[in-house]
Design goal:
Blueprint (H helix, E strand, L loop, with lengths): L8 E5 L2 E5 L3 E7 L5 E7 L10 H22 L10 H19 L5 H11 L2 H6 L3 H19 L15 H15 L7 H25 L4 H18 L5 H22 L1
Antiparallel strand pairs: 1-2, 2-3, 3-4
């Protein structure tokens, strides 16, 4: 059908917006001189080819990461949220604090992992403190949400990746707490397996949450991400920033519709 909605995702940049669909992506940025630049391309790896329940989530993450080198190659002026030196320093610092927490003998394994998970959010939180990034995040949500619902939407979106925070903190804490019980020589592989399992389980839980938004459990799991999204991660965009998001959306939809013809 001509009016069938295409499932879209996106990522805000400090100077633009990346929009991706099932087969294609498009990125639009605003140059310092005010010029708008847009590029679009087919994806090289498609997560839709992976159908195993616990592997679908890691595959979607890999699909998103595989787009980044394409974006930087086609659009070198695009800035990534984690390129700022302060964010990289926060990532290094949080890794040290997580190690200290995990080595603590005063906390239970579950408490260690839950606290470690909260500390590991520090780099992302610092990255979102950029006002331009938050505004482009809001623009991304408005553009995609308005397309999906057929009416003007607000700066929060019900499928924002921030809603994964609750499920991933819970599943990671449980998985790593169990991994901590295995013999020490197997602990690192067990933790790696726990991280992969937590990611897979979290995306499956997130899918259930989007299908059951009125469930009390769904609302509870979404609460941490909603608060982050509402209070810190998004801001009202300027008309110029919204124009950037809409340009990325239009370019992505054009490629997606061409792929379906």
């Amino acid at each position: 059908m001509a009016d069938e909605k295409i499932r879209l995702g996106g990522m805000a940049l400090p100077n633009g917006v990346l929009v991706h669909g099932p087969r294609s992506w498009a990125c639009a940025i605003r140059h310092p001189d005010g010029r708008l630049e847009v590029v679009a391309e087919r994806k090289r790896f498609l997560a839709s080819q992976v159908t195993a329940p616990l592997l679908r989530g890691p595959a979607r993450l890999l699909e998103s990461l595989a787009v980044i080198p394409q974006v930087k190659r086609r659009l070198p002026a695009a800035k990534l949220p984690f390129e700022r030196p302060g964010v990289l320093a926060a990532a290094a610092g949080s890794a040290v604090f997580v190690k200290v927490v995990r080595d603590s003998t005063r906390l239970t394994p579950a408490a260690q992992e839950l606290l470690g998970g909260l500390i590991s959010l520090a780099p992302a939180t610092l990255a979102l403190r950029s006002s331009d990034l938050a505004a482009y995040h809001g623009a991304e949500h408005i553009a995609i949400g308005s397309y999906e619902h057929g009416e003007r939407r607000e700066k929060e979106h019900e499928r924002c990746g921030s809603h994964l925070i609750g499920p991933i903190l819970a599943t990671t804490a449980v998985g790593n707490a169990l991994a901590a019980r295995v013999p020490e020589r197997w602990r690192n592989p067990a933790r790696a397996a726990a991280q992969l399992g937590a990611l897979g389980a979290s995306t499956e839980i997130f899918g259930w949450m989007t299908r059951n938004p009125e469930s009390r459990l769904s609302r509870a799991l979404a609460k941490p991400g909603h608060e982050l999204q509402h209070r810190l991660a998004t801001a009202d965009p300027t008309p110029e920033q919204l124009e950037v998001a809409e340009a990325a959306l239009a370019a992505c939809l054009e490629l997606e519709r061409g792929a379906r013809d």
